[in-house]
## 1
Amino acid sequence: MTNAFKTAALFYAAVLSCGTAYAAKTVPGWPLYLAMGAVGGPNITPPTINSRGQDDDFGGRPVDVVFKYAGANGNGDPGMIDPPTNATRMTGDINILSGLNGHAMRVAIVEYTAQMSGGFALADFSNSPDADPASGGTYLMARHFISLAADTIALNDMPVAYDGGSYYGTQILNPDLMGAIQQGGFIGNVDGALPTGAVNQAVDQALCFLTATRSYFNTSNPNGLQSAPYLDKNYTGTPVSILEQLLADTYPVWSINSAQDPYWNTATDNRIGGTGGSYAQVGQWFNACVAHPKYNRRLYRRPDFPAGFEGWVQANNWLIRTFSPVGQVTFGWQDNMWAVGSGFWLHADLTRAEIASTYSRPLSDWLKKNAPSAVKGADYFVFDRYETDDSAAPGQAALYNARAWDNYLTAVGQVSARFDGAPIMLWQIPGSHIPYKGEADPEYYNDTPGLYVFSTAPDYFFGDRKLKPDLSNIVAGSGSTTNAAVGNYAMDCNAYRCAAGSTYRQYLTSNGFDWGRNNRTLASAAAHAHVFAILWGGGNTTNVIKNFSNTDDHGWLAAKIVDYYRNPVAIPTN
């Protein structure tokens, strides 16, 4: 265990000794300091302390949580019951990494039970026997509920084990959904798609599938072995339990994650080979539950969920809590900074009262009216920024200066305050940093010298001593793109509310913020915005490690987090 990790561990133990005084802003099972996280995913081979290039290669680069989108395609896989293999495989990786790093870690699964990241759509709220024109699947709502609960069960059954403790995973629910509904004024459409009884029917079908004890005799031998522990063996239990038993017997996960597996496959309607094929075993069990949704109604007392969006939200919450009690698997719903129209409001000079009237009050009022259980029924609430490095999307309000981040933290803190101090997670925060002249290993766009990837969030939260207070050493290139010009980039000051003719360097220094030092913004985030965790990166956004299609910062952010753990920010009391 390195000195940094020992210091963090001692700090954590000291905070625990303070008892329940810190409970107001904490999330069960999470650190009592402001946690750090990153995007990852199951490795093909186990991680080592020095392995690099795989999705969970966090050896020597510790974080408190690693997140991954659920399912085969990361969009909720409408029409498919997804096996919880991302959760089970990542738990295996994180068990290894916690020991390697001397640092307790958790798994986070991002769930879509309804998805509007690609635009307005109602299909995920349907539970029809008719094939959905887009996905080809049937009974989409019930299948989504099963996929969600299967992940919950897997995370609950197999928490990460480290130093005698159990570290349960977490679930982040439905990114962009509430933001898109509010932004587009679609709540009437969504309520209309969820008539009385629709959610109850889908939950009943899910409970029938998930809770009945079943029997499965496995004759499948995907690897063609002469003998295997799982071959010609009878398994009993619930569907998720049988899957866990198969995997424990070394049944190949690649088969489960294919369209061909006879037990639990990944294909529309869980038909082997797709439309027209025979049903995998889970597809057969689901079909029986559609026809006769039987389960132990004394043990599983399903509420009468009301019609409309709020009833559907309640059902998601109830399924998670049914399969993992309070204090174990945690979860939170997500919302967007652009839900009120666009994200450009963040770039104005605003008072706290103006931030409340522009964003925090309209968002909170919308939630209280249309989906109060998304906050009050969850363990925390989630805000992202916009899943891209700043330099990649200037037209999407992504060029943040300190004023924008100040507004952001004020806004999410105000939303938290309107919900009794709900803990706030900042998620998919871009991890690239401000490039400076003479940097040994700058982060290049497409690995092309002279083209830089950059963002401001890590500099805002951690500071960078290599930057001069006036940013006189920021990279200042030529050309019209953010990546080439960097400090010389000509700002659109109508959108970003800056003095006409401002360059990016002038925009960043316009309010006197010193990017070269620690401005105690992390402490402010925890104390005033009720932030308990920051999760960095995304599939195309700079992360703590190089994985997926994100660019390589050569360990810059990882080093900042290691240094942060030497003196982490405590979660304060009310």
## 2
Amino acid sequence: MTLNPTLVRVTDRIRARSRDSRAAYLARVEAAACKSGTARTRVSCANQAHAYAAFTPNDKLVLRQARLPNLAIVSSYNDMLSAHQPLERMPPLLKEAARAAGAVAQFAGGVPAMCDGITQGEAGMELSLFSRDVIAMATAVALSHNVFDGALCLGVCDKIVPGLLIGALQFGHLPVIFVPAGPMTSGLSNDDKARIRQRFAKGEATREELLESEMAAYHGPGTCTFYGTANSNQMLMEVMGLHLPGSAFVNPGTPLRDGLTRAAAERLARITRLGSEYIPIAKVIDERAIVNGIVGLLATGGSTNHTIHLVAMAAAAGIHINWDDFAELSAAVPLLTRIYPNGSADVNHFHAAGGMGFLIRELLGAGLLHGDVTTVMGEGLARYAEEPWLDGDKVAWRPAPAASLDPAVLRPAAEAFSPDGGLKLLTGNLGRAVIKVSAVKPAHRVVEAPAIVFDSQETVAEAFDRGELKRDFVAVVRFQGPRANGMPELHRLTPLLAVLQDEGFHVALVTDGRMSGASGKVPAAIHVTPECLDGGPLARVRDGDVIRLDAEAGVLEARVAPGEWNARELPVPDLDAHQHGTGRELFANFRANALGAEQGASTFGTTLPGPVAA
């Protein structure tokens, strides 16, 4: 199949833009690689003794002989978060499978995992974005012992997978497989959950009813079933070739889930330098894989958070992408799924309808994915058009369904829900921003209304409660960027603004902060860059300024005369309340060193270079 010309053009542009940084990255990878034998033979006898001391006699003997690979397990397990609780039982399965495959596996280290669902609207949310970089550093610490021949990364949710990948890419000479936990089984429908949230916002439902609804939706082990950042992560790892095929959305605690976990260790043993085919992660994650990830995100209406995370993940491999790349690809990539918040189905319905195998086959057939990439399964992405099944007690693969089993949830490329991916780049005198319109009805995609300026989501909620927002307006929520307060998600605004939109008012949100990965039906220009604290023009907006948000034409501007606009002084915010409590004191250096949203909001400075101009 001939590749789509937009895919080719964007990939070539990224490759040219990244030539020097990618070459430097690959040179570092080559210098770090162990050319023969096991990695642990390069460290001293005393170092090796420390690495083996606590192991069982048989495993210790294998490690000492240094003829078989040693696999690192890096996990985000904790038993408070539903998505990570299933990871508890995986290390024993991985160790057992590694032994059967002629290898040894050691639990190398844990990384923190926080839940945006728990911290939404709370002070802890201001640590969330930066937790990604903490996870990357923790992954590097785990692998820094330099006695491993490959790594198994266990993680699921919003910042965990990007952080694990950024950390793992610093050890680009190692083969790495990501091992997912899977989504929880379906509970209360997403539409019903959203309806109760809006009723509560209007005072029509009690807190007891709201809690009952939320607990019926989030009811057991596994990832939340809506298509937010966590499940977008799982899609990305699959379409970028870091999962075993079809493993993203298999429920935890099932025989197939356990079989896929074991198969990941078996496969990793084979792709170490001591196995039959050496596939380091630096070979898997190249410019084509990054573009495939963007295409997958667009084709599924995935999380806007990845307009930040994918930039940082790519930069960790010496690859520079920016929002122009997302926008240009979005115009060429059709929307093939309807998963909440872009529809009523959840990821279990998507998986049952044909899932990742069907999706990838359709995109490959339409020339919208690079099929000639390297994956953890070997050469080519075609293996990812298959789905796993249990042949006795072993995982086998078969072709994904030839037709969607539910065209209301998953469609072929020729019958797409929309001809574009629904992610738009907005530009104008307010800066650059992204907007996800796949869940926004066409009638709401252009809003021109007076601004009401807020410096926090709490003050928006207070104005709503006072009944002051029953009119057409654009909520400008400023000083919410990485350097100001860690760029928390402003998820609590979604039900409030949705209520006003349903009442017939023309409303929109413009902010230098983030929305949830479940950004929904209200038009929201987010990640406005430069951020207000960094001199961004959004800080110049005053109450009453007419703001035009045009998602069709890609315009975001304040209708203010240029002379008046340029003469306005930037306000000096009082951010003291965002610098103390809930551990925020410890993140002062992160806030001070954070790059902009379009540069991935990375806090690593020059260690991981951000994108340059196209």
## 3
Amino acid sequence: MRKMIHCNGPLSFVAFLLALPQTYQCFAKDLKSGNPRNPPNVLVILTDDQGWGDLSLNGNRNLETPRIDSIARDGATVKHFYVCQVCAPTRAEFLTGRYYPRTGVSGVSVGQERLNADETTIADVFKAAGYATGAFGKWHNGTQSPFHPNDRGFDEFYGFTSGHWGHYFSPPLDQNRTIVRGDGFVVDDFTDHAMDFIRSNQNQPFLCYLPVNTPHSPMMVPDRFYDKFQDKHLAMRHMDSQREDLLMTRAALAMVENVDWNVGRLLDLLDELKIADDTIVIFFSDNGPNSYRWNGGMKGRKGSIDEGGIRSPCLVRWTTRIPAASVVEQLSGAIDWLPTLMELANVEHSVAKPVDGQSFAPWLLGQKTERESRVLFSIRKKQVSVRSGVHRLDGDGRLFDVEKDPGQRFDLTKELPGISNSLQELAAQHAKVMTNAFDLNADRPFTVGYRKKTTLPARDGVPHGAIQRSSKSPNHSFFEDWKGLDASITWKIDVKTAGVFEAIVHYTCRHQDVGAKLVIQVDPVDGQEVTEGAFVTSGIIEDEFDPPLYDKSKERVPQSHYYVKDFQPLSLGALQLPEGYSTLRLRASLMVGEEVADIHSVQLIRR
């Protein structure tokens, strides 16, 4: 395994170079207390936009989370655990054990969330070791093959691949690449499928990954959880209470209590199947809270690389191996789960890419108790925050003792110049390395033809002219207000092998606009001639399809920007696509009414 940084004094540039990851054969060492009698199951529960403070375990009296808290009572609390400031980067670090810019991930939408196809994932590792693997919920690391979860080591997938989903009650979902209709509240539904997976694989080791999508907005939650909070007085508030939106806080807390209920269902199932003692249960979140609410007095929220934006609750239970009610003091993060779980499960596998994470299995098992020197980096664009010992160097180069001063109010740069200078040197080097990684993966096209069917959603397209998105965020949006023949939608694509594809547009159209003609084409490159029947095809919208938007009555915060409705397919015929990079354009050559149509996606099916 890669050597951990040990530095009792200020860190030097030499220490930084020594800390750079190297390609290695990653394998799990025999644990001092002996190998597990049987390979342990692994159940990972990852919440979305839940802050460190959104648990009664951490002192929040506004809500009750007894089942989540029980994981700590029966296992370990990882006291200083860090993730990224937003969703997709944390997922990439968890899946690969690598800082997210190295993995191809640079953001949360328009393709920036895709995990490079040559990355080894935790599912690849455990599947190779004979584990059944399943993921249920929010993937957020790529949609088209080879980025889809079924391409990344997961035998089973049920959920959505986008960064967020616009509706939480029986929406369309992806089940192993097939679109199906969900059943009820999505977190309950995802948990149902995870439980079915566990039942089906109870007699063999399994890796069950449950990345639920709450309390991320839209703030939709069933009445049975929200009623308690609707008029509830909140005893604990954000440290700057004027910034807190109480409706948002109440909805978020209700969503967390729903997660707690589902965690309880999972724990009860493990007991029922008599496999609780053979199962490692992990609970953590992907970033800080998505609103200003109580978070232990820490500075920052989702999107920030301050303490409150990246510190996550982390609870781990393995009843036969991890001491009950124990506390891990060692600095740890999402990048550490791959080597840690490999060591706990005694799994051996070759990992071709450099791994940044370090196993904290010895601390979980009580074999080590003292904190060892460790540096963890967080990056947002070119800003880097560094956590080392009790200190955090923030993105603006100021130094804080975040264990005494979680609100980062007292700058210690002048009092501790040695530590400040060393951490600033490390931050500058990390920024240089990661910026180069960002540049390598900038502006990647969307892959087509790696499977028979490829979907290009509106999220990944670019509007031109009089076309608007249905929401301010591309994720789960559709294109609307298409007014004019000079408007169009484009997708940059990378076709694996040249061929002929059927082009299907998923649309809605009002009665008065029926008769519009849609054209899809490959834009000409280097003098290439585009002719009907070769690199262009078209079709006329002959059927009205104008369904209502999904009901938003369970959304607890007004003025939401999430709008969802159903769409229907229209085949535009056969389209020839050249191998390699090109631009796919959807336009209209005929309008009948004031608008053309609303567009959800284009599907390409190889013939």
